[in-house]
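Task: encode each sequence below as C-alpha cells.

Item 1
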Amino acid sequence: VGLAGSEYTDTELRERWEAVYEPLFAGGVRLFTPREIMTTVGGGARKHIQPSVWIDLWHDALLRSAAPRVVVDDVRYPNEKAAIELEGGEVWRSVRVDLPIPEVQDTSETACDHLPDSCFGAVLRRRTGVPELLAQVDQLILARPACVLPEAS
C-alpha cells in the first residue's frame, strides 16, 4: 500500500503532529508553535555546537542501521543535501506553489532556495496538502527501475 493511500486528512495529520508537543504547552495555552521550537533548537545546535551537528547524528544512526534503504524526510541546508548525496542518496525538492511566500522566514526555510531545480533528483510541485505530495512520491517511486537488493548472508 502506497503512502498516498493514507486515510488521514491534512487537519488530522496536523493534529496528530501537534499532539507530540502537548507537554510543551502550559495550561492549554500554546507558548510556541512546533515549528518555532524546532527552528530554535535546530538552529541553536547548528550555531552553538557546529553546522554539521544534525548530519553527524544522522550519519551515526545510518552507520548503525541495517536498513537497505533510508528516507530522510526533512533536508534544510546544502551541507545536509551534500551528506546524503555523498552516501549515494538522492534529494528531492518539494514546492507548494499555491501559497504566498511568507515575508519573514527562518534561514532553515530558505537555505537551499538558491539551488536550481537541476541540483535535485526530482522536483515535486503541488497545489494542495500532504495527500497530493504522497501521491507524487508514490508515482516517482513506481516510475523508477526496480532496485534489487543483495540477499542477506
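Item 2
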Amino acid sequence: EMALSMHPGAAKVLVIHDYTASGLAVRQETEQSLARFADKVELRYASDGPVETLSQELRAMPQNGLVLLLTYVTDKAGRTFTREESARLIAAVSPAPVYTVHATDLGFGVVGGLLLEGQEHGRQAADLALRVLGGADSEHTAIEESRSRCMIDYTVATKLQITERLWPDSALVVNRPISFWNRHRSALIPSFAAILVLTALSLLLWVTVIRLRRTKQTIHKSEEKYRVLFSNITLGITVTNRL
C-alpha cells in the first residue's frame, strides 16, 4: 500500500526472496498478504537461480514496476550475502524502485518500506518479559505481532524524483540533509545572544559618547562666552552667594 501510494502508475511488482526454508516461509506469508493486490498490479516472484539470473530479471523490470525485497541471503549456487550486499546489488541493477521489509536494508539504495527493526523487536520482547516477571501467566500471555515502522531514505527518494507530498505523513525520513542551523544550533543560539548583547552595549556606549561630546561642546561654548566677557569688560565684577 505504501509503495503503490507513492507510485500510482505502478503496473508490475517483482517480489524477491531466496529459496531457503526461511525464505520460502516468508514467501508463503507474503502470498497471503499480497493476494488482495492481484487485481491492481501484476505480481511475480523471483525464480530459483543464481544471483546472475536474479540480475537479469531485475534488468527486465519496466520503469513503472516495483521491486519488493523480502530476504535474499543465499542464491542457488550457495553463495551467501549480507543484507547490505544483497540490498546494494538489487538496487544497483534494478531500473525500478526497490522497497524492503527490513530496516537493515535501508541506506543501501532501497527507497524504504514498512520496516522491521531488531531494536523494536528487543523492546517488545523486554516488555513481555517484564510482564511475566511481574506475575503474568506466561501460558496465557497473548502473542504479539511484530511492530514495523514506515521509513524512507531521503537520498534515494529524491534521486528517483518521488515527490515528497506522496510520502506517508507518519514516515521516518532518514538521510535528510541537515541544515547549517540544525547542525550548529547549540552553538549558534548562544553566539547570536552574545552578539545581540555586545551590539546593545556598543549602541549604549556610542550614545553615551555622543552625549559626552555634546556636553563638552556646550561647556566649552559657555566657558568661551564668559572668557570673552571677562577679558573685555571695563567694570569690576562681584560674585555673591545667597547662602
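Check on item 2: Residues 17 and 70 are 5 Å apart (CA to CA). The chain is about 45% helix and 15% strand.
End of task.
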